[in-house]
C-alpha cells in the first residue's frame, strides 16, 4: 500500500457548474484542512458558509511498480461531496463526520495527470444526521480533514481489528481479524503474519497460509502467546506497534497500527480499568476553533487532548456529538485520556432513511476507531433524543456485533428512559445552585435494580459564564462544577461525571448569547481558563504540580457590597496562609466538610476578611502550605495597572510539508503578573516570515488577553517572527522555526 497525501495546492471557488469537472477552473489556492469560508469570532449569520463550493486538484500519478488499483480516501467533508476524476463521476458521500473511500476505475487511472474535482455542499440537509431540527453546534463546511491518494496491490488489507484476553497481565487468547480484498479474479494462496513489537523487538508473532477467494473476505489470525504485557492505563499509556503483512506471489501489503492492552468494565459499582476502580472525571469537547471551525490540522487537534489531560487533569472526555478527529484520538492513546465516542446527532431522529444513514455513520465510526485503547464506550443513541425502541435496538445490535469488547452507551436527559444499552448514561442538569446537586441513579433510570451508570453532562446551559463576567458569577460557575464532582464521588454506583463542557463554542442562533457563542466551557474558545478550570486542574497530586488559584480579580468593587465572601481558593495543598498587606489573616484549610469526597477540596472562606466598602484596600498574598513548607505564593496588587504585554507560543517549531499551526497568546499583565481583566484595548499582532495569522491581526482583548493561531505555508521554510502591541505596551519578539522535519 502506498499513501500520497493530497493536502496542498487545491483550487477553490464558490459555486459549481456542470463543466467544472472537465477543465481547470479559476479560483483561490488553498490547502487542507480547509473551511469554505472564514467566519468572524462572533456575531455572524451561520448561513454565510452554507452553499455549494468546488475544490479541484491536478494529480500526477507515479509509475506503477505492480498491478493494483488507486483509490481516494477522504477523512471528512462537510456536509456532502460529489467526486469527479477527468470529468467522470466516481463517487459521492453524505455526512461530514465519517470517512469514505472511492476506488478509481482503471479506465480513469490510465490517464495521467488526473483532474480531481470535488463538489461540496455545505448546506444543512435535514435528511442527513445530525440535521433535521435545531442543533446546538455548527458544522461549518469544506474538506476539513485529510485527503489521501492510496495505491492498493491486487490483494490488500482493507482494515484490521485486534482482540485479546488478558489474565494477570499475561496475553492469553489473541486474534487479528483481517478484512481483505482480492482483485485478481482468481483464488490465491496468501501468507498472513502479525508481529507485535515492543521497542522495535518482536515479542509475539502469528502467521498462517490460506487460500483467498476473489472479492472481499474476512480472515483471522489467532494464537495464545502467553507472554507478559505492559498494561495501558491513564498513568502509563504504553503502546505496542503491530505490523500486519500479507504476501502472495507477486503481491505484498502491510498495515502498521499502535495498540494498547487493557481491560475495561462498567459495573453497578463503577468503572474499572485493569480491575482497578477509576472515577471518570471529564469534560465534553467540541472540535471547533475560532474563525475556521473544524478545519484545524493535526497539531491543534492533539493540543486539545494535551490541554484536557495535562492542564485540566482530566482522565476522560466525550466526543460530543460526533466522531472525533483521528489525530485527537491517537493523542489520547499516547497520553492516557479515556474517550467516550458517539455517533452524530442532537435530540432529533428522522425517518427510516435518516436512521439508515445514522447506522452507516455508527458503523463507519466503529470500524475506523476500534483499535484505539483510549476508547471505552460507543455512544449509540442520538444525544438527548426521545426513546425509539426499534432504532436503538438496531444501533445497539450493530455496535455489539461489530465490537463486543466495548459497552454501548446512550445519552438521555429524561428520567426513566428506555434502557437498551450496557451503560445508562444520563445528562443530569439537576443542579441550579440552591437545589440538590444530583438525582439518585435509581430515580434517573426508573429501575429498582442497580445498573452501570455514568453522568454524561452537567452544568452547561444551566449557568452560562463568560470569562468577562462578574467575579461572583465566575466563582459560582466554578463551585457548581466542584459540587457535582464531589457528589458524583459520594455514590460508588456513579462511574463518573463528564461536564459540559471544556471549551466555549460557536452555535446556531437558537442557542448561546445571541452572538453565536455558547459560553458553557471551563475555558473560552481560545483555550484560556475560567476559574472553573482551576477546580479540575487542582485535582492532581502536588508532587506533580502545585496548584494555587484564588478565584478573584482582587478589586474592591468587583463583588457586591465591596468584596464580600465566599472567597474560594482552588489548591491541592494542605493549607493557605493569607496576608492582607502586612497583616496575617490566618491559615485556612480545604473545606472537607462541604466537599468530603474530593481528593483536594478548595478552600472556602465564608466570613468577611478584607473590610467593608470605603475601608482601606491593600495588597494581598496567598501562600500555599505543603508538608509544613511554603511551596507557592500568589500576590495581588491593590492598585493594578497594565505593565507588560506577555507573549507565549505553544510550539517553537512547525512543519511546512503541509500547513501547520500553533497558538500564540498575548496577555496584558499588571505589575505582579495577573491579567488586567477588563482591559479591552486593541491588540495589533505583527508577523513576518513564512506564516500568516488565522483571523484578524487587529483584535480587542478579552479579559485582558487574546490568542491567535498562525498558519504555515506548504513548502516554505524559515523563521516566523511575531510580536504584539497594545496601548503603548510592546511584547517581546518570539521566533518560530518552520522546517521540513
TrEMBL record:
| Record GO terms (molecular function) | hydrolase activity, hydrolyzing O-glycosyl compounds
> Is Hydrolase tagged as a keyword?
yes
Q: Which PROSITE patterns match?
A: GLYCOSYL_HYDROL_F2_2 (PS00608)
The record's listing under Gene3D superfamilies reads:
Galactose-binding domain-like, Glycosidases, Immunoglobulins
Name a biological process GO annotation: carbohydrate metabolic process
Can you tell which superkingdom this protein's organism belongs to?
Answer: Bacteria
Ranges for domain Glycosyl hydrolases family 2 sugar binding come to 39-153
Enumerate the spans annotated as Glycoside hydrolase family 2 immunoglobulin-like beta-sandwich domain: 172-262
User: Mind telling me which InterPro entries this protein's record contains?
Assistant: Beta-gal/glucu_dom_sf, Galactose-bd-like_sf, GH, GH2_Domain-Containing, Glyco_hydro2_dom5, Glyco_hydro_2, Glyco_hydro_2_AS, Glyco_hydro_2_cat
Give the keywords, sorted.
Glycosidase, Hydrolase
Keyword set includes Hydrolase: yes
The cross-references to Pfam families, in alphabetical order and at most eight, read: Glyco_hydro2_C5, Glyco_hydro_2, Glyco_hydro_2_C, Glyco_hydro_2_N
Domain spans labelled Glycoside hydrolase family 2 catalytic: 267-541
- Glycoside hydrolase family domain location is 645-733
The UniProt entry's sequence similarity note says: Belongs to the glycosyl hydrolase 2 family.
Which PANTHER family does the UniProt entry name for this protein?
BETA-GALACTOSIDASE, BETA-MANNOSIDASE
UniProt name for this protein: Glycoside hydrolase family 2 protein
What does the record give as the organism's lineage?
Answer: Bacteria, Pseudomonadati, Spirochaetota, Spirochaetia, Spirochaetales
Amino acid at each position: 500500500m502506498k499513501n500520497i497525501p493530497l493536502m496542498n495546492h487545491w483550487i477553490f471557488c464558490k459555486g459549481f457548474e456542470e463543466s467544472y469537472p472537465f477543465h481547470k477552473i479559476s479560483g483561490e489556492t488553498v490547502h487542507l484542512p480547509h473551511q469554505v469560508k472564514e467566519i468572524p469570532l462572533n456575531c455572524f449569520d451561520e448561513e454565510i458558509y452554507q452553499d455549494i463550493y468546488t475544490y479541484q486538484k491536478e494529480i500526477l500519478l507515479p509509475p506503477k511498480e505492480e498491478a493494483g488499483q488507486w483509490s481516494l480516501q477522504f477523512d471528512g467533508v462537510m456536509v456532502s461531496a460529489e467526486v469527479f476524476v477527468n470529468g467522470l463521476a466516481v463517487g459521492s458521500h453524505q455526512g461530514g463526520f465519517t470517512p469514505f473511500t472511492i476506488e478509481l476505475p482503471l479506465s480513469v487511472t490510465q490517464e495521467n495527470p488526473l483532474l480531481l474535482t470535488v463538489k461540496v455542499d455545505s448546506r444543512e440537509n435535514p435528511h442527513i444526521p445530525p440535521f433535521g431540527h435545531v442543533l446546538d453546534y455548527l458544522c461549518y463546511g469544506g474538506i476539513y480533514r485529510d485527503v489521501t491518494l492510496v495505491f492498493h496491490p491486487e490483494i490488500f488489507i482493507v482494515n484490521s481489528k485486534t482482540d485479546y484476553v488478558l489474565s494477570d497481565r499475561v496475553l492469553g487468547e489473541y486474534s487479528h481479524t483481517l478484512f481483505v480484498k482480492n482483485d485478481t479474479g482468481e483464488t490465491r494462496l496468501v501468507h498472513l503474519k502479525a508481529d507485535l513489537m515492543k521497542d522495535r523487538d518482536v515479542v509475539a508473532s502469528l502467521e498462517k497460509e490460506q487460500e483467498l477467494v476473489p472479492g472481499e473476505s474476512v480472515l483471522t489470525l489467532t494464537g495464545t502467546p502467553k507472554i507478559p504485557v505492559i498494561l495501558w492505563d491513564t498513568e502509563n499509556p504504553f503502546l505496542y506497534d503491530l505490523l500486519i503483512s500479507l504476501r502472495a506471489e507477486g503481491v505484498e501489503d502491510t498495515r502498521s497500527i499502535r495498540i494498547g492492552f487493557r481491560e475495561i468494565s462498567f459495573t453497578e459499582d463503577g468503572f474499572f480499568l485493569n480491575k482497578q476502580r477509576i472515577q471518570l472525571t471529564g469534560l465534553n469537547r467540541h472540535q471547533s476553533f475560532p474563525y475556521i471551525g473544524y478545519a484545524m490540522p493535526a497539531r491543534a487537534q492533539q493540543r486539545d487532548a494535551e490541554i484536557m489531560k495535562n492542564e485540566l487533569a482530566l482522565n476522560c472526555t466525550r466526543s460530543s456529538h460526533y466522531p472525533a478527529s483521528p489525530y485527537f484520538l491517537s493523542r489520547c492513546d499516547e497520553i492516557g485520556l479515556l474517550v467516550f465516542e458517539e455517533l452524530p446527532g442532537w435530540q432529533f431522529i428522522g425517518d427510516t432513511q435518516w436512521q439508515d444513514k445514522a447506522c452507516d455513520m455508527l458503523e463507519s465510526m466503529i470500524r475506523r476507531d476500534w483499535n484505539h485503547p483510549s476508547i471505552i464506550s460507543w455512544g449509540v443513541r442520538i444525544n438527548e433524543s426521545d426513546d425509539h425502541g426499534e432504532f436503538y435496538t438496531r444501533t445497539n445490535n450493530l455496535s455489539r456485533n461489530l465490537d463486543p469488547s466495548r459497552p454501548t452507551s446512550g445519552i438521555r436527559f429524561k428520567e426513566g428512559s428506555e434502557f437498551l444499552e450496557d451503560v445508562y448514561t444520563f445528562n443530569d442538569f439537576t443542579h441550579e445552585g440552591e437545589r440538590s446537586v444530583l438525582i439518585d441513579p435509581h430515580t434517573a433510570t426508573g429501575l429498582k435494580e442497580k445498573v452501570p451508570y455514568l453522568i454524561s453532562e452537567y452544568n452547561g446551559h444551566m449557568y452560562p459564564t463568560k470569562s468577562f463576567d462578574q467575579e461572583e458569577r465566575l466563582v459560582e460557575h466554578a463551585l457548581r462544577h466542584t459540587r457535582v464532582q464531589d457528589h458524583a464521588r459520594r455514590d460508588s454506583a456513579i462511574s463518573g461525571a463528564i461536564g459540559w463542557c471544556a471549551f466555549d463554542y460557536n452555535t446556531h442562533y437558537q442557542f448561546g448569547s445571541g452572538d453565536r457563542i455558547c459560553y458553557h466551557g471551563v475555558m473560552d474558545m481560545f483555550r484560556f481558563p475560567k476559574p472553573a478550570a482551576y477546580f479540575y486542574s487542582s485535582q492532581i497530586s502536588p508532587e506533580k504540580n502545585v496548584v494555587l488559584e484564588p478565584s478573584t480579580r482582587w478589586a474592591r468593587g468587583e463583588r457586591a457590597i465591596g468584596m464580600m465572601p465566599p472567597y474560594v481558593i482552588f489548591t491541592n495543598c494542605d493549607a493557605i496562609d493569607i496576608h492582607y498587606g502586612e497583616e496575617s489573616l490566618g491559615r485556612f484549610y480545604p473545606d472537607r466538610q462541604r466537599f468530603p469526597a474530593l481528593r483536594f477540596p478548595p478552600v472556602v472562606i465564608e466570613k468577611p476578611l478584607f473590610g467593608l466598602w470605603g475601608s482601606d484596600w491593600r495588597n494581598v498574598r496567598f501562600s500555599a502550605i505543603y508538608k509544613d513548607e511554603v511551596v507557592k505564593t500568589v500576590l495581588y496588587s491593590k492598585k493594578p495597572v497594565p505593565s507588560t504585554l506577555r507573549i507565549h507560543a505553544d510550539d517553537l517549531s512547525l512543519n511546512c510539508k503541509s500547513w501547520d499551526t500553533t497558538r500564540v497568546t498575548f496577555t496584558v499583565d499588571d505589575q505582579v503578573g495577573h491579567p488586567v481583566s477588563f482591559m479591552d484595548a486593541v491588540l495589533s499582532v505583527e508577523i513576518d516570515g513564512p506564516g500568516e495569522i488565522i483571523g484578524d491581526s487587529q483584535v480587542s482583548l478579552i479579559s485582558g488577553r487574546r490568542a491567535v493561531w498562525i498558519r504555515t505555508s506548504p513548502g516554505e521554510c524559515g523563521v516566523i517572527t511575531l510580536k504584539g502591541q497594545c496601548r503603548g505596551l510592546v511584547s517581546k519578539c518570539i521566533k518560530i522555526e518552520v522546517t521540513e522535519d
